[in-house]
Design brief:
Blueprint (H helix, E strand, L loop, with lengths): L1 E2 L26 H14 L3 E6 L2 H11 L3 E4 L4 H12 L4 E4 L19 E3 L13 H7 L3 E5 L10 E5 H4 L5 E6 L13 H13 L6 H13 L3 E2 L11 E6 L4 H9 L3 E2 L4 H4 L7 H5 L4 H4 L2 E5 L6 H23 L1
Parallel strand pairs: 1-11, 3-4, 3-5, 5-6, 6-7
Antiparallel strand pairs: 2-8, 7-8, 9-10, 10-12
Helix pairs in contact: 1-6, 2-3, 7-12, 8-12
């Protein structure tokens, strides 16, 4: 099996759960309190809470934070959906658009003072890197950042998407200092915190595959391969590209039958058949956005393995093209 989509589909582990991990309002909850302390110490925050990582869960964050809020169009679907719901309630959201190169347009940050900015250190789907220190130089707003694929200590509030990290739950873990009221013990998902933290402690990224994959894909696909974003400007353990005249989901399904797993972005893990919203936000039409494919690397592969995978990619690509032309 070649797992080239681990940032969106986690490698689920067989964790051992004990009754000591449960919460009881009549107990001292020593096991949970030690876990919470260790989690917060690792990332240097004062408190945490859990929410459902959906538009309704994130909407709750918006309603608690209030103030002037800006949201990058490069954020997770749940955050985008929550911001749209927030606007429907009569509140104002300032949207940070994406440039054709995949970077976030920061011009709106200079127009007024913001209290919170929902912007991560990378754009969803393409994994284009965002310099949060640059954001801080422009605005005094607190940064709310999704750290599931990359943690940036510049963030003021951090979101971990448990599904993408451990695969067991749809919760999100929010790390914060003093922005929220302390969560009622009975509403905390202790199991999600445990499973997420166990996976974060062993989370592994591989940065040596990317260059080799680029070389081999170019060698095999030639003019049928193109790049939506600069590969040097994305997280070093990710690769994003497009294949001409084919829908990404056709490649995804075909390769999965051979135990090679890829993705076209966050929509895949959400069970959506829609093309990448992020690519369309960059200014591409819907048809072109269906060409987009994302890879992410957690294991090291030899040159021989990468050559084999790239050749197999191209073989399946040509087969699909021929079938589509009939």
């Amino acid at each position: 099996m070649y797992k080239l989509n681990f940032l969106l589909y986690p490698n689920v582990q067989n964790y051992h759960i004990t009754k000591e991990s449960s919460l009881n309002i009549l107990d001292d909850n020593d096991t949970f309190n030690r876990l919470k302390k260790e989690f917060l110490f690792k990332y240097k925050f004062e408190n945490l809470k859990t929410i459902d990582f959906s538009k309704w869960g994130i909407l709750g964050l918006f309603l608690e934070l209030k103030g002037e809020i800006a949201v990058s169009l490069g954020e997770s679907q749940a955050i985008i959906d929550a911001a749209l719901e927030y606007e429907k309630l009569g509140f104002n959201i300032t949207w940070l658009t994406l440039n054709k190169q995949g970077t976030v347009n920061l011009d709106n940050l200079k127009l007024k003072k913001f209290d919170y900015i929902f912007i991560s250190s990378y754009v969803m789907d393409t994994f284009v890197k965002i310099n949060l220190e640059e954001i801080k130089s422009i605005s005094n707003a607190k940064i709310v950042s999704n750290a599931s694929a990359h943690f940036d200590k510049t963030s003021d509030i951090v979101i971990f998407d448990c599904y993408k990290i451990c695969g067991y739950t749809s919760c999100a873990i929010i790390l914060y200092n003093n922005e929220f009221q302390e969560q009622n013990l009975a509403n905390i998902d202790a199991l999600a915190i445990y499973l997420c933290f166990e996976n974060l402690k062993t989370q592994n990224f591989n940065t040596s595959n990317k260059k080799l994959f680029i070389e081999q894909l170019k060698k095999n696909f030639k003019e049928d391969l193109y790049f939506f974003v600069d590969t040097q400007e994305t997280l070093p353990y990710t690769l994003h590209f497009g294949l001409k005249n084919i829908k990404a989901r056709e490649m995804i399904r075909t390769l999965a039958l051979s135990n090679i797993f890829i993705t076209n972005g966050e929509g895949c893990s959400l069970g959506l058949s829609r093309p990448s919203r992020v690519i369309q936000a960059m200014g591409y039409d819907e048809l072109t956005s269906r060409n987009a494919i994302s890879l992410s690397f957690c294991e090291e592969y030899s040159l021989e393995e990468i050559e084999k995978i790239a050749k197999f990619f191209y073989k399946k690509y040509k087969q699909i093209r021929l079938l589509n032309e009939q």
